[in-house]
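Much of the work behind modern protein science is quiet bookkeeping, done one molecule at a time. The fold becomes a row of whole numbers, each drawn from a learned catalogue of backbone shapes. The protein below has been through that process, and both of its lines are reproduced in full.
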Amino acid sequence: MAAERALLGGEPSLSRREVATAAGVRLRDARALWRALGLPNVESSVPAFTQDDVDALAQVTRLVEDVRLGEERALELARAIGRTMDRLASWQVQLLLEETGSADEVPARLQEVVEDLGPLLDYTWRRHLAHALDQLAADRLARDPAMTVQRTVGFADIVAFTSVARRVSETELGRLVHRFEVTAADVVARHGGRVITMIGDEVLFACAPGAAPAGIALDLAEAMDEDPDLPRVRVGLATGRVVARLGDLFGTPVNRASRLTAIARPGTVLLDGPTAHPLVGTPGLDLRPLRERELRGLGPVRPWLLRRSTAGTGTGPGVDTGPGSGSDPEGAASPSDDEALWRLEGLGGP
């Protein structure tokens, strides 16, 4: 295929063994790199490679030697590149298929745009690298051997997605998921957050603690509510130290945000205490403490309901958080008020 030859740098004529020999690399190391990049496996004697593959393998070898990047780290870097490029390539081909409506037209259209996409990818990558360096300085990761960072983590989940999937065609479902992903990505980026991952009916995002993650959660819930073609979402936010690893986040706050999302009702946003407390009194935000819930694997957690405030105060009516008030230190509502809030705000009890 002409498009494949153009993308690969010519007609494949070299076997993996020949590529490794030309690049001065052991076949075993070449095979490990190939697997790390997530590329299809081929027999060592099959002519599936070009001079571009020789150059790439030699470049990786120089990177390991010149930058003193250990073999394990080099393979981790290759895995990150492979996962990112695999997803990007799938997206691009899918978008062109949707645009043309014909698989036969995709190769030609791809050839038309691929030369322009290369510089754009390089530019975007460099901009994200610059931002990552800024974040590195802010987080001071070098001082923390555990590589943990303080983050507010959010989950947004499409309500009754399984039921929706049964009622619509595969094409309609694909469009719905696409619109959800686009909406979520736009909202998160607008507030300076970062999308960690998207899995069909849910998005995991993260942001520095403060008002920004609350804005993301509220804007996302409202955007989905206002779009007649999209189902509602429920959102959970949790704050704490998480492990940052190869672009992903791990830790208790991630699990807590997920569990809060699971108990939220459609169109609502629930916060844990560490997320809610600093926001109390913030103009434009209304926070209401609810009764404790037992979250699976995490124990008792007191959720807070987050809404936009019409009165310009960050504390719900009837909740006294001032010192010496005799109230719960977290500003918890009384049991009767709490039950009423669960019913009125659509957060029915267990």
About this structure: The CA atoms of residues 42 and 70 lie 26 Å apart. The first strand starts at residue 148 and ends at 158. The first helix runs from residue 2 to 8.
